[in-house]
Design brief:
287 residues, binds S-adenosylmethionine, alpha/beta, two-stranded antiparallel sheet, 12 helices
Length: 287
């Protein structure tokens, strides 16, 4: 079958199946072959790779994935797309379509079944309404994933990349950088999709760390400290942490821990980098 990565073929398939776009599912289909090629090349697929695709839509990128990888599990929430995928993927036999919400699928089980003992690669043009929950659940679930190559809103890609001192810096930046090394592959304008989204997009590749980049004794505590800091961004870290319901450190204890790692008690959380959050968590975990 000819590539679906252009407006004409996409439009034909949609009309033929009388498919109506569902805004609630974040359906913006890719219609640009150059962008598709960039995603596929950034994913660095090999013939024995197991790929999980989130939201195949009409199967545009799935076709490329089936060509390049060993086996593909394509997880699609919209049941109306299932008969379309049956048609567009007809010439491949190395895939399965799972009609479900990706956040409810047992990814660990899928990888055990299909991964040949290797970690999987996640490739997707993500639905923007749940980008952060999807990325966070992939990273936090500790399932064996080698890399995540995804299209996201440009603003979200920027948030994943930045460090202290920028307005985009926050809990997402720190979580992504703790679990992976982010790299923006390409910026993608609105006219590469149908229907056009009203935001610009970017392809980002997260190469998952084999070992964490910082040593932290209590990961959960570190992420609570991070959330406490960015919940009340304009407050000092001492106030942010002492006001945070899930933590019970006194102002004196927080001040002492900050001083121990060479930071002032007037510092705001947004000024700390990942290694400083790890040091702070280590200092507080002794209390
Ligand atoms: N991969 C296609 C492409 O690039 O043209 C479609 C991408 S579109 C941005 C996002 C896709 O994710 C849609 O097909 C949508 O139905 C699907 N989707 C939305 N929410 C989902 C969820 N929770 N689980 C699985 N798929 C979902």
């Amino acid at each position: 079958m000819a590539s679906l990565g252009n407006f004409q073929s996409t439009n034909e398939i949609i009309k033929k199946h009388r498919f109506t776009f569902q805004k609630k599912f974040g359906q913006n289909f890719l219609i640009d072959e150059r962008v598709l090629n960039k995603i596929i090349s950034a994913a660095e697929l090999e013939k024995d790779d197991y790929v999980i695709e989130i939201g195949p839509g009409i199967g545009t990128m799935t076709q490329y994935l089936c060509e390049q990888a060993g086996f593909v599990s394509a997880i699609e929430i919209d049941k109306d797309l299932i008969p379309i995928l049956k048609e567009t993927l007809d010439s491949y036999d190395n895939f399965e379509v799972i009609n479900d919400d990706v956040l409810k699928v047992d990814l660990k089980g899928l990888i055990e079944k299909n991964g040949n003992g290797k970690p999987c690669k996640v490739v997707a043009n993500l639905p923007y309404y749940i980008t952060t929950p999807i990325i966070m659940s992939l990273l936090e679930s500790r399932v064996p994933i080698e890399s995540i190559t995804v299209m996201v809103q440009k603003e979200v890609a920027d948030r994943m990349m930045v460090g202290p001192g920028t307005k985009d810096y926050g809990a997402l930046s720190l979580a992504v950088q703790y679990y992976a090394k982010p790299y923006i592959v390409a910026n993608v304008p609105m006219n590469c999709f149908v229907p056009r989204p009203n935001v610009d997009s970017a392809v980002i590749r997260l190469t998952c760390h084999k070992d964490a980049p910082v040593e932290v004794k209590d990961e959960k505590l570190m992420f609570k400290l991070i959330r406490a800091s960015f919940n009340q961004r304009r407050k000092t870290l001492v106030n942010g942490i002492s006001n945070f319901a899930e933590l019970s450190y006194s102002k004196a204890e927080i001040t002492e821990a900050l001083n121990k790692i060479g930071l002032s008690e007037t510092i705001r959380g947004e000024a700390l980098d990942l290694s400083q959050f790890a040091e702070l968590a280590n200092a507080l975990s002794e209390k």
